[in-house]
């Protein structure tokens, strides 16, 4: 009887784990802490030197914020679904406040990745509540900002990240002496 070996997914899985980890910006140490899998084992999985169990695969996917199926998918001819070059993308500058907003990408339904630059003391306009279940994730690149949503205030400084419900009126302002730069991911539920 001629037996055919099942296709190997280890290399694709390891590469997908490494790529996903890079996209969300976590280290092997952070992934190890989140999964309970040793750093050395994770490194070997990423380099296709070690296969993984279903339990480990599920733990890794959960820690990376995705489905296991996404990490097992066969590589496409190209993974580039959208490209925004420097100087491209929708830009808007509020003439009154000087706040600049640039749309970097809209990678999927209900997702927007934005870059804001706020002069010292500037405040964004008040954003209307997004649909129920919406979330905004702020990451401060430079400066200090105060986010106000539904009467609650949160201060963020360089390197801080916060994800907040955005189904209430909200805005943010630069509380520092220099300009503030903020990356913002807006996620609205699929309809």
Describe this structure in words.
The chain is α+β, with helices and mostly antiparallel strands and 191 residues long. It has two domains: 10-72, 434 Repressor (Amino-terminal Domain) (Orthogonal Bundle), CATH 1.10.260; 91-187, Jelly Rolls. 24% of the residues lie in helices and 28% in strands. The chain is built from five helices and nine strands. It has helices spanning 10-24, 28-35, 39-46, 54-63, 68-72, and strands at 91-93, 100-105, 111-118, 135-142, 145-149, 152-156, 161-165, 170-174, 180-187. Strands 1-2-3-9-4-7 form a six-stranded antiparallel beta sheet, with no helix packed on it. A three-stranded antiparallel beta sheet has the order 6-5-8, with no helix packed on it. The radius of gyration is 20 Å and the shape is elongated. The N and C termini lie far apart (52 Å).
């Amino acid at each position: 009887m001629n037996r055919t070996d099942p296709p190997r997914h280890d290399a694709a899985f390891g590469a997908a784990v490494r790529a996903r980890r890079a996209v969300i910006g976590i280290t092997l140490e952070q992934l190890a802490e989140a999964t309970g899998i040793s750093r050395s084992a994770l490194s070997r999985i990423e380099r296709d030197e070690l296969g993984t169990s279903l339990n480990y695969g599920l733990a890794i996917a959960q820690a990376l914020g995705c489905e296991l199926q996404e990490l097992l998918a066969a590589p496409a001819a190209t993974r580039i679904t959208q490209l925004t070059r420097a100087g491209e993308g929708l830009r808007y500058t509020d003439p009154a406040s000087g706040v600049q907003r640039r749309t970097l990408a809209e990678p999927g339904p209900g997702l927007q990745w934005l870059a804001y630059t706020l002069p010292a003391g500037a405040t964004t306009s008040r954003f209307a509540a997004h649909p129920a279940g919406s979330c905004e994730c702020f990451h401060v690149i430079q400066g200090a900002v105060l986010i106000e949503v539904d009467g609650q205030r949160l201060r963020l400084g360089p390197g801080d990240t916060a994800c907040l419900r955005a189904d209430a009126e909200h805005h943010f302002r630069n509380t520092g002496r220099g300009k503030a730069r903020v990356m913002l991911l807006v996620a609205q539920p699929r309809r």
